[in-house]
Specification:
By secondary structure, this protein is α/β, with parallel strands linked by helices. The chain contains 14 helices and nine strands. It has one domain. Helix 7 links the parallel strand 2 and strand 3.
Length: 389
């Protein structure tokens, strides 16, 4: 079996590109990503591309990357403010899933405690790329889930976000991170990208490749241990932000399975199951705690996996949690509408960044929680492991 899963996708181009990238280890990423000086502005006319900034120093490269990310963020925020477009539909889907509705008069807060970002790729490759848009999307969702308003700072500084004073932008990112932290992991991350994530965009980069098995409680411990006061402990505000969002567009199926395995109790944090002596199961009510937040996933459709996975052997895999939980999954497709095709340079890769993505929440509806799947251990033969991250 050459691939771990048999899956027929209608999003072939995006997934094939990710598959090719994931076959490289962190030490074998393409040479394009080896230094800050490789940041490129590309032109796609006649199938050619050029390097306009090959000889720039690192500070100039960082400035260009930051500017491009802010352009993406500003364009997505304009969609949200206009009440239409992809960013608005995504916020509505998340608001519905978290039972908190964006309000133009009340700050548009979502009920999200933290955001876990997995495997979006190298955002410093080129401006307005799919990974850069995915990063900007995560930054926007963090903002919407917090009490701080980047738009208020933008209005004080001027209409154009990218001309805002850097200290004001950075302070807004810092405040957002204190309220709704982003935990981020990308196996091919560059030192430049890690530095910018931590120092410019105030994102916590996770240590080590856990293949999706790291529990969110351990991510919090990493974050709180490295944060300066007053962020060393969760604030009263974010304790009431009840959901954990896993933000992972176009990630491989095995990564979703590992996340399900490591967070199985989060599907019904106030309902546990136990087995009686006669082998039957019964429902046990618990009060729960602030550490067991329900999870929401923004990524590939579980129902599509269910419909398109054709191997019965794979369906019976004891480590695959998707097929155990799919009947309790509520999905909202966040489509890319035609109006985005002429939305300007910052959103030109929007479809590639987010096509076929869904907001997935889970409801047991009074049913027993399915048995937890087994833990997946990769084979010694890499060809048998498929994709992880």
């Amino acid at each position: 079996m050459s691939e771990l899963w048999t899956f027929v996708s209608r999003g072939g181009a995006t997934k094939n590109n990710r598959r090719n990238r994931n076959r490289n280890t962190a030490g074998e990423c393409p040479s394009l990503y080896q230094s800050a000086n490789s940041f490129e502005y590309r032109t796609h006319h006649k199938g050619t591309r050029r390097r306009d900034h090959q000889d720039m120093d690192e500070s100039r490269v960082k400035e260009l990357i930051e500017r491009a990310v802010l352009e993406c963020l500003d364009s997505l925020e304009c969609q949200f403010q206009s009440g239409e477009g992809f960013a608005f539909r995504l916020s509505e889907a998340l608001a519905t899933s978290t039972h908190m509705f964006p309000s133009k008069s009340e700050g548009r807060c979502l009920s999200i405690r933290e955001i876990v970002v997995y495997g979006i790729g190298n955002f410093s490759d080129e401006p307005h790329s799919a990974p850069m848009l995915q990063l900007a999307g995560a930054l926007l969702l963090r903002k919407l889930a917090t009490t701080s308003k980047l738009s208020d700072i933008i209005n004080e500084c001027g209409e154009d976000a990218i001309n805002c004073h850097k200290n004001s932008i950075n302070n807004a990112f810092w405040r957002d991170q204190q309220e709704t932290p982003i935990f981020y992991y990308e196996p091919c991350i560059l030192p430049l990208e890690k530095e910018m994530l931590e120092k410019v965009f105030c994102v916590h980069v996770l240590e080590g490749n856990d293949s999706g098995k790291l529990k969110v409680e351990d991510m919090r411990k990493q974050w709180y241990s490295k944060s300066s006061p007053p962020s060393a402990n969760p604030t009263e505000h974010n304790l009431h932000q009840t959901h954990t969002l896993f933000y992972m567009p176009h990630c491989p199926m095995r990564l979703y399975c590992n996340i399900l395995w490591s967070h199985w109790e989060h599907f019904a944090p106030f309902v546990l199951t136990r087995t009686q002596n006669n082998g039957s199961s019964e429902r046990v009510e618990e009060n729960g705690s602030v550490s067991s937040n329900p999870i929401i996933i923004f990524g590939n459709s579980f129902h599509a996996y269910d419909e398109r996975t054709i191997s019965s052997e794979q369906r019976l895999d004891p480590t695959n949690g998707i097929f155990r939980i799919v009947h309790f999954a509520n999905e909202t497709s966040v489509y890319i509408a035609a109006e985005n095709k002429n939305a300007g340079d910052a959103l030109k890769m929007l479809e590639r960044a987010f096509n076929d993505c869904n907001v997935i929440s889970f409801s047991m509806n009074g049913c027993l929680v399915p048995d937890k799947p087994g833990e997946y251990f990769p084979s010694e033969d890499p060809q048998e492991n498929g994709e992880l991250l």
